[in-house]
Design a protein that fits this description.
The protein is built from 10 helices and 4 strands; from the N terminus they run ααβαβααβαβαααα. By secondary structure, it is α+β, with helices and mostly antiparallel strands. The protein folds into 2 domains: 179 residues, no CATH class; 99 residues, Alpha-Beta Plaits, CATH 3.30.70. Helix 2 runs antiparallel to helix 7. The model has no long low-confidence stretch (mean pLDDT 77). It is a multi-pass membrane protein. Part of the ABC transporter FtsEX involved in cellular division. InterPro entries: ABC3_permease_C (IPR003838), FtsX (IPR004513), FtsX_ECD (IPR040690). It comes from Orrella daihaiensis.
Protein backbone atom coordinates (compact mmCIF):
# COMPACT_ATOMS: atom_id res chain seq x y z
CA UNK A 1 0.00 0.00 0.00
CA UNK A 2 2.82 2.37 0.92
CA UNK A 3 4.59 1.63 -2.37
CA UNK A 4 1.38 2.28 -4.34
CA UNK A 5 0.91 5.65 -2.65
CA UNK A 6 4.53 6.48 -3.41
CA UNK A 7 3.98 5.63 -7.08
CA UNK A 8 0.93 7.90 -7.21
CA UNK A 9 2.85 10.71 -5.52
CA UNK A 10 5.67 10.32 -8.03
CA UNK A 11 3.22 10.25 -10.97
CA UNK A 12 1.52 13.39 -9.70
CA UNK A 13 4.86 15.18 -9.32
CA UNK A 14 5.87 14.17 -12.85
CA UNK A 15 2.55 15.40 -14.20
CA UNK A 16 2.89 18.79 -12.51
CA UNK A 17 6.43 19.20 -13.88
CA UNK A 18 5.26 18.37 -17.39
CA UNK A 19 2.36 20.81 -17.21
CA UNK A 20 4.58 23.59 -15.86
CA UNK A 21 7.12 22.84 -18.58
CA UNK A 22 4.49 23.46 -21.28
CA UNK A 23 2.36 26.30 -19.88
CA UNK A 24 1.02 27.58 -23.21
CA UNK A 25 -0.12 24.15 -24.38
CA UNK A 26 -1.67 23.41 -21.00
CA UNK A 27 -3.44 26.78 -20.82
CA UNK A 28 -4.82 26.56 -24.36
CA UNK A 29 -6.18 23.07 -23.74
CA UNK A 30 -7.83 24.16 -20.50
CA UNK A 31 -9.46 27.15 -22.20
CA UNK A 32 -10.80 25.10 -25.11
CA UNK A 33 -12.20 22.40 -22.80
CA UNK A 34 -13.62 24.97 -20.36
CA UNK A 35 -15.48 26.79 -23.13
CA UNK A 36 -16.87 23.49 -24.36
CA UNK A 37 -17.96 22.41 -20.88
CA UNK A 38 -19.72 25.74 -20.33
CA UNK A 39 -22.38 25.03 -22.97
CA UNK A 40 -24.10 22.06 -21.28
CA UNK A 41 -23.96 23.91 -17.96
CA UNK A 42 -25.85 26.85 -19.45
CA UNK A 43 -28.39 24.49 -21.00
CA UNK A 44 -28.87 22.68 -17.70
CA UNK A 45 -29.26 26.02 -15.93
CA UNK A 46 -32.10 27.01 -18.26
CA UNK A 47 -33.94 23.70 -17.83
CA UNK A 48 -33.46 23.62 -14.05
CA UNK A 49 -34.65 27.22 -13.73
CA UNK A 50 -37.65 26.90 -16.05
CA UNK A 51 -39.02 23.67 -14.60
CA UNK A 52 -40.18 25.13 -11.24
CA UNK A 53 -41.65 28.11 -13.11
CA UNK A 54 -44.18 25.84 -14.78
CA UNK A 55 -45.75 25.33 -11.38
CA UNK A 56 -46.60 29.04 -10.99
CA UNK A 57 -47.34 30.55 -14.38
CA UNK A 58 -50.00 29.94 -16.95
CA UNK A 59 -48.00 27.14 -18.52
CA UNK A 60 -49.89 24.79 -16.20
CA UNK A 61 -52.74 23.30 -18.25
CA UNK A 62 -56.23 24.32 -17.18
CA UNK A 63 -59.40 22.32 -17.75
CA UNK A 64 -62.68 24.25 -17.74
CA UNK A 65 -65.85 22.39 -16.80
CA UNK A 66 -68.87 24.27 -18.20
CA UNK A 67 -72.27 23.66 -16.65
CA UNK A 68 -75.52 23.55 -18.62
CA UNK A 69 -77.23 26.96 -19.04
CA UNK A 70 -80.02 25.99 -16.63
CA UNK A 71 -77.69 24.54 -13.97
CA UNK A 72 -77.86 26.31 -10.61
CA UNK A 73 -74.95 27.69 -8.63
CA UNK A 74 -75.47 24.90 -6.09
CA UNK A 75 -74.98 22.30 -8.82
CA UNK A 76 -71.75 23.97 -9.91
CA UNK A 77 -70.56 24.03 -6.30
CA UNK A 78 -71.41 20.33 -6.01
CA UNK A 79 -69.32 19.57 -9.12
CA UNK A 80 -66.39 21.60 -7.77
CA UNK A 81 -66.65 19.76 -4.42
CA UNK A 82 -66.81 16.40 -6.20
CA UNK A 83 -63.59 17.17 -8.09
CA UNK A 84 -61.87 18.26 -4.87
CA UNK A 85 -63.05 15.22 -2.93
CA UNK A 86 -61.39 12.81 -5.33
CA UNK A 87 -57.96 14.05 -4.17
CA UNK A 88 -56.35 13.43 -7.51
CA UNK A 89 -52.59 14.12 -7.14
CA UNK A 90 -52.38 15.91 -10.50
CA UNK A 91 -55.10 18.43 -9.54
CA UNK A 92 -53.48 21.57 -8.16
CA UNK A 93 -56.41 23.98 -7.87
CA UNK A 94 -60.18 23.90 -8.28
CA UNK A 95 -61.91 27.27 -8.71
CA UNK A 96 -65.62 27.94 -9.15
CA UNK A 97 -66.49 30.78 -11.53
CA UNK A 98 -70.12 31.85 -11.29
CA UNK A 99 -71.91 33.21 -14.34
CA UNK A 100 -72.11 36.63 -12.66
CA UNK A 101 -68.36 36.74 -12.08
CA UNK A 102 -67.65 35.67 -15.65
CA UNK A 103 -70.10 38.27 -16.96
CA UNK A 104 -68.41 41.07 -15.03
CA UNK A 105 -64.99 39.96 -16.22
CA UNK A 106 -66.14 40.11 -19.83
CA UNK A 107 -67.76 43.49 -19.30
CA UNK A 108 -64.40 44.80 -18.17
CA UNK A 109 -63.00 43.94 -21.58
CA UNK A 110 -63.64 46.64 -24.17
CA UNK A 111 -63.87 44.07 -26.94
CA UNK A 112 -66.77 42.27 -25.25
CA UNK A 113 -68.61 45.11 -23.56
CA UNK A 114 -70.65 46.30 -26.56
CA UNK A 115 -71.59 42.76 -27.53
CA UNK A 116 -72.89 41.98 -24.03
CA UNK A 117 -74.92 45.18 -23.82
CA UNK A 118 -77.22 44.10 -26.67
CA UNK A 119 -78.06 40.79 -24.98
CA UNK A 120 -81.23 40.68 -22.86
CA UNK A 121 -79.68 38.65 -20.06
CA UNK A 122 -76.51 36.87 -18.99
CA UNK A 123 -75.94 33.99 -21.45
CA UNK A 124 -72.92 32.56 -19.64
CA UNK A 125 -73.07 29.30 -17.65
CA UNK A 126 -71.41 28.58 -14.33
CA UNK A 127 -67.98 27.01 -14.75
CA UNK A 128 -65.32 25.21 -12.75
CA UNK A 129 -61.69 25.90 -13.65
CA UNK A 130 -59.26 23.11 -12.69
CA UNK A 131 -55.48 23.53 -12.88
CA UNK A 132 -53.44 20.33 -13.16
CA UNK A 133 -49.74 19.69 -12.70
CA UNK A 134 -47.38 20.22 -15.62
CA UNK A 135 -45.37 17.03 -16.02
CA UNK A 136 -44.41 14.59 -18.74
CA UNK A 137 -47.81 12.82 -18.65
CA UNK A 138 -50.02 15.91 -18.38
CA UNK A 139 -51.69 15.45 -21.78
CA UNK A 140 -52.75 11.91 -20.90
CA UNK A 141 -53.84 12.95 -17.41
CA UNK A 142 -55.88 15.85 -18.77
CA UNK A 143 -57.70 13.62 -21.29
CA UNK A 144 -58.58 11.06 -18.62
CA UNK A 145 -59.86 13.70 -16.18
CA UNK A 146 -61.87 15.44 -18.87
CA UNK A 147 -63.70 12.20 -19.73
CA UNK A 148 -64.43 11.54 -16.06
CA UNK A 149 -65.79 15.01 -15.35
CA UNK A 150 -67.94 14.99 -18.49
CA UNK A 151 -70.13 12.39 -16.74
CA UNK A 152 -70.89 14.58 -13.69
CA UNK A 153 -74.45 15.80 -13.20
CA UNK A 154 -75.18 19.18 -14.79
CA UNK A 155 -71.99 19.32 -16.89
CA UNK A 156 -72.54 20.46 -20.48
CA UNK A 157 -69.03 19.96 -21.78
CA UNK A 158 -65.39 20.03 -20.67
CA UNK A 159 -62.94 22.23 -22.51
CA UNK A 160 -59.40 20.98 -22.63
CA UNK A 161 -56.64 22.87 -24.38
CA UNK A 162 -54.86 19.64 -25.26
CA UNK A 163 -52.88 21.23 -28.09
CA UNK A 164 -51.30 23.70 -25.66
CA UNK A 165 -50.62 20.90 -23.20
CA UNK A 166 -48.94 18.82 -25.88
CA UNK A 167 -46.85 21.81 -26.96
CA UNK A 168 -45.55 22.24 -23.42
CA UNK A 169 -44.68 18.56 -23.24
CA UNK A 170 -42.94 18.72 -26.61
CA UNK A 171 -40.90 21.78 -25.62
CA UNK A 172 -39.73 20.17 -22.38
CA UNK A 173 -38.89 16.95 -24.21
CA UNK A 174 -37.01 18.81 -26.94
CA UNK A 175 -35.06 20.71 -24.29
CA UNK A 176 -33.99 17.52 -22.53
CA UNK A 177 -33.08 15.76 -25.76
CA UNK A 178 -31.21 18.82 -27.02
CA UNK A 179 -29.23 19.07 -23.79
CA UNK A 180 -28.35 15.37 -23.99
CA UNK A 181 -27.13 15.77 -27.58
CA UNK A 182 -25.09 18.87 -26.75
CA UNK A 183 -23.55 17.06 -23.77
CA UNK A 184 -22.62 14.11 -25.97
CA UNK A 185 -21.02 16.37 -28.57
CA UNK A 186 -19.08 18.22 -25.86
CA UNK A 187 -17.91 14.91 -24.41
CA UNK A 188 -16.54 13.94 -27.82
CA UNK A 189 -14.80 17.34 -28.11
CA UNK A 190 -13.17 16.88 -24.70
CA UNK A 191 -12.23 13.31 -25.59
CA UNK A 192 -10.56 14.45 -28.81
CA UNK A 193 -8.74 17.37 -27.15
CA UNK A 194 -7.27 15.30 -24.33
CA UNK A 195 -6.52 12.37 -26.66
CA UNK A 196 -4.55 14.55 -29.05
CA UNK A 197 -2.65 16.34 -26.27
CA UNK A 198 -1.60 13.10 -24.59
CA UNK A 199 -0.70 11.60 -27.97
CA UNK A 200 1.66 14.45 -28.79
CA UNK A 201 3.29 14.26 -25.37
CA UNK A 202 3.59 10.48 -25.49
CA UNK A 203 5.32 10.71 -28.87
CA UNK A 204 7.69 13.39 -27.58
CA UNK A 205 8.59 11.16 -24.60
CA UNK A 206 8.95 8.03 -26.73
CA UNK A 207 12.58 7.41 -25.90
CA UNK A 208 12.13 8.17 -22.19
CA UNK A 209 9.25 5.67 -21.96
CA UNK A 210 11.32 3.03 -23.82
CA UNK A 211 14.20 3.43 -21.34
CA UNK A 212 11.81 3.22 -18.38
CA UNK A 213 10.45 -0.06 -19.72
CA UNK A 214 13.97 -1.44 -20.16
CA UNK A 215 14.70 -0.88 -16.47
CA UNK A 216 11.49 -2.63 -15.42
CA UNK A 217 8.76 0.02 -15.42
CA UNK A 218 5.27 -1.51 -15.63
CA UNK A 219 2.53 -0.36 -17.99
CA UNK A 220 0.63 1.18 -15.07
CA UNK A 221 3.71 3.11 -13.99
CA UNK A 222 4.15 4.48 -17.53
CA UNK A 223 0.50 5.41 -18.00
CA UNK A 224 -0.19 6.90 -14.56
CA UNK A 225 1.30 10.41 -15.19
CA UNK A 226 -0.73 10.72 -18.40
CA UNK A 227 -3.91 9.75 -16.57
CA UNK A 228 -3.23 12.43 -13.99
CA UNK A 229 -2.59 14.90 -16.78
CA UNK A 230 -5.96 14.21 -18.41
CA UNK A 231 -7.78 14.29 -15.08
CA UNK A 232 -6.15 17.50 -13.83
CA UNK A 233 -6.70 19.28 -17.14
CA UNK A 234 -10.40 18.44 -17.20
CA UNK A 235 -10.84 19.18 -13.49
CA UNK A 236 -9.44 22.70 -13.86
CA UNK A 237 -11.43 23.19 -17.08
CA UNK A 238 -14.67 22.07 -15.37
CA UNK A 239 -14.13 24.48 -12.47
CA UNK A 240 -13.45 27.32 -14.91
CA UNK A 241 -16.58 26.30 -16.87
CA UNK A 242 -18.68 26.64 -13.72
CA UNK A 243 -17.25 30.11 -13.16
CA UNK A 244 -17.87 31.11 -16.78
CA UNK A 245 -21.45 29.81 -16.67
CA UNK A 246 -22.11 31.68 -13.44
CA UNK A 247 -20.70 34.88 -14.94
CA UNK A 248 -22.76 34.44 -18.11
CA UNK A 249 -25.97 34.09 -16.10
CA UNK A 250 -25.53 37.53 -14.53
CA UNK A 251 -26.26 39.62 -17.69
CA UNK A 252 -28.94 37.13 -18.72
CA UNK A 253 -30.73 37.56 -15.39
CA UNK A 254 -30.50 41.33 -15.69
CA UNK A 255 -32.21 41.13 -19.09
CA UNK A 256 -34.83 38.69 -17.81
CA UNK A 257 -35.69 40.72 -14.72
CA UNK A 258 -37.51 43.37 -16.77
CA UNK A 259 -39.46 40.73 -18.67
CA UNK A 260 -40.44 38.77 -15.57
CA UNK A 261 -41.76 41.90 -13.87
CA UNK A 262 -44.26 42.39 -16.70
CA UNK A 263 -45.76 39.02 -15.75
CA UNK A 264 -45.71 39.82 -12.02
CA UNK A 265 -43.25 36.99 -11.48
CA UNK A 266 -39.77 36.64 -10.12
CA UNK A 267 -37.68 34.54 -12.49
CA UNK A 268 -33.94 34.07 -12.61
CA UNK A 269 -31.62 31.53 -14.15
CA UNK A 270 -29.38 29.67 -11.75
CA UNK A 271 -26.86 26.86 -11.88
CA UNK A 272 -27.81 23.33 -10.84
CA UNK A 273 -27.35 22.37 -7.17
CA UNK A 274 -23.94 21.73 -5.60
CA UNK A 275 -24.22 17.94 -5.84
CA UNK A 276 -24.95 18.12 -9.56
CA UNK A 277 -21.97 20.43 -10.11
CA UNK A 278 -19.73 18.08 -8.13
CA UNK A 279 -20.87 15.14 -10.25
CA UNK A 280 -20.27 17.25 -13.35
CA UNK A 281 -16.66 17.90 -12.34
CA UNK A 282 -16.23 14.23 -11.45
CA UNK A 283 -17.57 13.20 -14.85
CA UNK A 284 -15.15 15.60 -16.57
CA UNK A 285 -12.22 14.14 -14.60
CA UNK A 286 -13.27 10.60 -15.51
CA UNK A 287 -13.62 11.55 -19.17
CA UNK A 288 -10.17 13.16 -19.19
CA UNK A 289 -8.54 10.17 -17.51
CA UNK A 290 -10.25 7.73 -19.88
CA UNK A 291 -9.18 9.71 -22.94
CA UNK A 292 -5.61 9.93 -21.66
CA UNK A 293 -5.45 6.19 -20.97
CA UNK A 294 -6.83 5.40 -24.41
CA UNK A 295 -4.30 7.69 -26.09
CA UNK A 296 -1.22 6.59 -24.19
CA UNK A 297 -2.14 2.91 -24.64
CA UNK A 298 -2.43 3.35 -28.41
CA UNK A 299 0.72 5.41 -28.91
CA UNK A 300 3.26 3.83 -26.56
CA UNK A 301 3.19 0.30 -27.94
CA UNK A 302 6.63 -0.21 -29.43
Amino acid sequence: MKRLLEHHRYALAVTVRRLIGQPFSFFSNVVVIALALTLPLLGASVLVSVQPLTQHVSANPAITVFMTPDASLEQAQAVAQEIRSRDDPVVLEVRLISKETAYELLRGNQAWRQALEVLPDNPLPHAVSVTIAADEAMATNADVLARQWQQLDGVAFVQLDSIWVQRIEALLRIGNIGLAMVTLIIALVVLAAVFNTVRMQALSLREEIAVARLVGATESFVRRPFLYQGGITCAIAALIAIGLASAALTPLNEALSGLSRTYDALFALHLPDALSLFLYVLAAISLGAFSARWSVTRHTRY
